[in-house]
Design brief:
heterodimer; A: mainly alpha; 7 helices; B: mainly alpha; 2 helices; flat
Chain lengths: 142, 60
């Protein structure tokens, strides 16, 4: 007959998630997607949040400054679809860029192509940051 | 605004930002985050320099 769980093991391994933790596991990734780094900031990971925010914002803005292209939703070429998925990762930055009409010019020189990649990678890095914010919210990471 | 960077400076900026995010997200404590971030930066920058030399050799 198996031993009943001790109070210690119950607390450490089978503790039911509190309502705050459950809510945070939804809110933190959502906020982190909308504003890069904010998923960490609302969980009081100040330094990590600021570094993520600075890195992803800088990368996205440098991409725009280099005349990089911002992809629109499309159903054509597979690389265009993947480019759109990468761009969408930047969340609020992507929305602002689309509303303002940034990144719609034709790519005319090599630097603009680097800019396009910067914008895509900023979005992909934000996907990783969102997953990290979720892991913090569920207690998997300190 | 129209920013023109060389391929190498664009690659170094890319390496800095990607390394910061990788360091923070892939490790659990501050010391490991810094070490892993520096490791990633060295790999990015070293990879760029190595690839440059490989292409120089192939072109000859």
């Amino acid at each position: 007959m198996p031993n009943p769980p001790t109070s210690k093991s119950f607390n450490e391994t089978q503790r039911p998630a509190t309502e705050t933790e459950t809510m945070m596991s939804v809110v933190a990734p959502a906020v982190g997607w909308l504003v890069p780094g904010a998923g960490h900031l609302i969980q009081k990971r100040w330094i990590r949040g600021v570094l993520l925010l600075a890195s992803i914002f800088s990368m996205f803005l440098l991409g725009l400054a280099m005349q990089g292209r911002v992809y629109k939703p499309n159903g054509g070429d597979i690389l265009d679809i993947l480019g759109f998925i990468g761009d969408v990762g930047a969340g609020g930055l992507y929305m602002v860029a689309r509303i303002a009409g940034w990144g719609e010019g034709a790519i005319a020189h090599a630097t603009a192509d680097y800019g396009t990649k910067f914008i895509i990678v900023a979005g992909l890095l934000n996907f990783i940051a969102v997953a990290d914010a979720y892991h913090i919210a569920i207690g998997k990471k300190p | 605004m129209n920013l023109h960077l060389s391929h190498f400076s664009a690659a170094l900026l890319f390496a800095v930002f990607a390394s910061v995010v990788f360091g923070i997200t892939q490790r659990n404590n501050t010391r490991d985050m810094v070490r892993y971030g520096l490791y990633c930066f060295a790999m990015f920058a070293g990879g760029v320099i190595l690839a440059g030399w490989v292409m120089w050799v192939l072109r000859r």
